[in-house]
């Protein structure tokens, strides 16, 4: 009888222990919402989850690259738009300055306007959209791209593209060379000199033609920026959808269905309580037998 009683107690202890572990498991899963807490819970699923996380990490890196490229390209687009406005004003000045009947005072006013536009162009060329890196320096990001030396603008950038990976097989250039901005500045200096000398012929022919060419060129640059920004937007949309899909697949592996978890938790609680009740009854019966001397 003593051996049978000991065996019963051991069996009850094991049952209560298993019930305690199962109850604790579903309490944790219900609280955390996670099905896989350690690799041994689902070795195959864990390997798959690791691969999914690596894909998500790669997409997030591409997302950071895209945001950086958008910052530069949006600033570049605005700079080209501002340069376009400068060119429109210069064209008006050249047209007015080519008039032989222009008074000295009116000509001087046009000269002052050109000088102000040159300062504006210098500011646009040396801007830093993030407060640290120059927009038109090429890969010399921390070197101011434009200096004025002897009245002429000098380009200090290297003109090399900043390539940013946005896909496994796509590196997108997120900058433009600033060399033509220096050329434009120096062209404005020529126009200033032609206004000073009242050279209406050069203003109406050479200068006007050159400014119109610059207008066409910078409009083309702005269009190229727009193409790159649309490509970035397309990739951003694609990655957002792909990331949602990957996270959904990851959730299927690692997370639990809350309704199922609550059901399992209730079943575990009932099984645990039942085991305790059985243990209590067996313990009481054996104690009663002992008191009877049996």
Task: Describe the overall structure.
The protein has 294 residues and is mostly helical. The chain folds into 2 domains: 2-33 and 258-291; 51-250, f41 fragment of flagellin, N-terminal domain, CATH 1.20.1330.10. The protein has helices at residues 2-32, 43-97, 104-125, 179-196, 200-254, 258-291; strands at 146-149, 152-155, 163-167, 170-173. The strands form 2 sheets. The protein has a two-stranded antiparallel ribbon. It has a two-stranded antiparallel sheet with strand order 3-4. Strand 3 and strand 4 (170-173) form a beta hairpin. It is rod-shaped and about 115 Å long.
- Lateral strand order in the biggest sheet: 1-2
Radius of gyration: 38 Å
Compute the number of strand runs: 4
- Major sheet attributes: 2 strands, antiparallel
The CATH class designation of the largest domain is Mainly Alpha
The helix/strand class is mainly alpha
CATH architecture of the largest domain: Up-down Bundle
Number of domains: 2
* Mean pLDDT across all amino acids: 83
Proportion of residues in extended strands: 5-15%
Intertermini distance: 9 Å
The unreliable regions are: none
Q: State the fourth-level CATH superfamily of the largest domain.
A: f41 fragment of flagellin, N-terminal domain
Number of helical regions: 6
Gross morphology is: rod-shaped
